[in-house]
Q: What sequence folds into this?
């Protein structure tokens, strides 16, 4: 098998705009990345940097006023942007699954856990109630919910946040998807549960060989679990590299600033450096580099010349004028 | 909600119990009228006309609640009359509920032009007095039980539609609806399994009030002679007939009036309690 056969998801030059009062926000502004089979790809960035919008664009779950204006999302060679609504519905929950940020509100409060996990199996696999029940029991066991027989008939409100996220994972994995998108899966959970949930996701990756897109603002978390990381800023990916490379040799000033603001145990002295200022919301034409106003390494032409993606080293891409103006 | 707690709490509430008792009494008399009624409600007896309550007529019959201007037994007519009131009340509320919930769900879920159309339809419905609609429809179609039910359903569906629509608007933004979409479920499934059950509590409450309102509305139509044919005893009809004898025989109009009042109070008390019970914000 060569490299291209292994590509599960290929997002190319994706632009997603969201209508707001008096204009359109460039939510996703020319994002490209590739995720291979069995790979965990991390997407990092501040709130509003377009991480979730990228995920929703892939799933075609954009809000009412959002639309993909340009670009393609190829899932195993098939373009999801132009696929029919029926095709998308058939893929969702079956081949492509998603886990959401807040497990407290992601489950339907009026049906039992077992019922909700089984729903997806009945929908996509055409299982009858008893087949779905057997498979649901296995799923509950596999996500670490013991006593599955009793838990099957429990309602979401009887579960803690961590347990509910396990249920969400069981639902997402019911049909062994090829791609799992986890949008801030542990943000609403406390740290010990976070560890367990991520360990679970990694374990399941090994089992079913799915590609995973892990989205979070927590760089430390990504560092621990991802094979490659992309850093987003104002709707664009500013740097993509393998995890070791990104952590040891960050190129983009924003990545450096983010790493500088991260508490690390082996650097014990000194204060943490915050990234000063706020990320912009890009509505009209983009002029220059979006990070320029906050950039410590800012140059004279950063305000006027938009940086393009460069690859100073193989597999390490960066969008910054420090590394030249054209590829 | 646990079914067990539900009944225990109901037994504890005096209001709810009163409501339930009254309603059960009426339901039972409607179901078992042929066995409960001491006389046939249509049999006339001109010798014993306008007998007072607790009176025995010249030909030796005892009438607990007296007789009317044609010598028909009032108690029997009240028991049989419960059938019309209850049938019209529940069936019309059920039809109105189904129609209103469906339209409200569609309007709220899809939004946009469909929503605007359904809501304008509601406005039109609300702008027309129901008596006007009733009179014109019944004049056009004639007055039968089915027509009465249709007319009364038409006047009730708007309440359901508006409440369900506003509930749907908020529930469809919940994350579990997004999660359902991410699992590849289609709109009908999401509407029926994810949205509807989560907006249903107020519908149950509206339904109880709507039954009470429909019973009153049916009585009003009977009073105007627009409801069921005079051969079928109904509370509104009895009230209307008794009106002319009010000075000489007070019981003719008073007793069916009391029957209507108690039924409506009973249903309302039960509805009140149901509303308090189902709305966690009102629970102390």
A:
């Amino acid at each position: 098998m060569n490299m291209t056969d292994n590509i599960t998801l290929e997002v190319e030059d994706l632009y997603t705009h969201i209508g707001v009062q008096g204009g359109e926000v460039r939510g996703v502004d020319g994002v490209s990345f590739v995720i291979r089979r069995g790979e965990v790809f991390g997407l990092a960035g501040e709130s509003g940097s377009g991480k979730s919008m990228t995920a929703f664009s892939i799933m075609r779950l954009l809000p009412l006023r959002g639309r993909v204006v340009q670009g393609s999302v190829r899932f195993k060679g098939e373009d999801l942007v132009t696929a029919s609504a029926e095709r998308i519905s058939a893929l969702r929950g079956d081949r492509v699954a998603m886990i959401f940020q807040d497990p407290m509100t992601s489950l339907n409060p009026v049906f039992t856990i077992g019922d909700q996990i089984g729903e997806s199996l009945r929908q996509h696999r055409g299982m009858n109630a008893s087949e779905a029940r057997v498979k649901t029991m296995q799923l509950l066991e596999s996500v670490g919910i013991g006593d599955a027989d009793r838990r099957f008939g429990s309602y979401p409100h009887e579960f803690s946040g961590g347990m509910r996220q396990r249920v969400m994972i069981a639902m997402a994995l019911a049909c062994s998807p090829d791609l799992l998108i986890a949008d801030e899966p542990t943000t609403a959970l406390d740290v010990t549960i976070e560890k367990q949930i991520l360990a679970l996701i990694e374990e399941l990756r090994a089992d079913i060989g799915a590609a995973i897109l892990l989205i979070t603002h927590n760089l430390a978390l990504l560092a621990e679990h991802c094979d490659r990381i992309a850093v987003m800023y104002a709707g664009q990916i500013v740097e993509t590299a393998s995890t070791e490379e990104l952590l040891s040799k960050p190129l983009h000033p924003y990545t450096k600033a983010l790493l500088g603001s991260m508490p690390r145990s082996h650097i014990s002295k000194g204060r943490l450096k915050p990234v000063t200022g706020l990320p912009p919301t890009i509505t009209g034409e983009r002029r220059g580099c979006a990070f320029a106003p906050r950039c410590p390494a800012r140059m004279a032409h950063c305000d006027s010349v938009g940086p393009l993606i460069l690859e100073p080293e193989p597999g390490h891409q960066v969008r910054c004028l420090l590394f030249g103006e054209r590829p | 909600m646990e079914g067990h707690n539900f009944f225990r709490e109901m037994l504890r509430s005096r209001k709810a119990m009163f409501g339930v008792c009254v309603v059960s009494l009426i339901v039972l008399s409607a179901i078992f009228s042929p066995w409960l009624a001491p006389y046939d409600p249509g049999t006339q007896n001109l010798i014993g006309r306008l007998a007072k309550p607790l009176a025995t007529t010249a030909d030796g019959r005892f009438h607990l609640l007296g007789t009317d201007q044609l010598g028909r037994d009032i108690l029997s007519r009240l028991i049989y009359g419960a059938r019309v009131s209850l049938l019209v009340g529940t069936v019309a509320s059920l039809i109105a509920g189904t129609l209103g919930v469906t339209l409200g769900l569609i309007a709220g879920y899809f939004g946009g032009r469909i929503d605007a159309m359904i809501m304008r339809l509601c406005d039109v419905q609300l702008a027309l007095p129901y008596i006007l609609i009733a009179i014109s429809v019944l004049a056009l179609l004639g007055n039968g039980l089915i027509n009465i039910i249709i007319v009364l359903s038409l006047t009730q569906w708007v309440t359901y539609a508006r409440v369900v629509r506003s509930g749907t608007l908020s529930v469809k933004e919940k994350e579990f609806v997004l999660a359902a979409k991410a699992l590849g479920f289609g709109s009908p499934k999401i509407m029926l399994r994810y949205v509807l059950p989560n907006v249903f509590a107020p519908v149950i409450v509206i339904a109880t009030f709507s039954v009470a309102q429909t019973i009153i509305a049916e009585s009003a139509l009977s009073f105007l002679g627009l409801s069921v044919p005079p051969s079928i005893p109904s509370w509104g009809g009895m009230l209307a007939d008794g009106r002319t004898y009010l000075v000489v025989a007070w019981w003719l109009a008073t007793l069916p009036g009391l029957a209507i009042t108690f039924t409506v109070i009973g249903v309302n008390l039960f509805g009140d309690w149901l509303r308090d019970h189902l709305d966690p914000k009102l629970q102390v």
In short: Chain A has a mean pLDDT of 87. Chain A touches chain B through 28 residues (CB under 8 Å). The two ends of chain A are 30 Å apart (CA to CA).
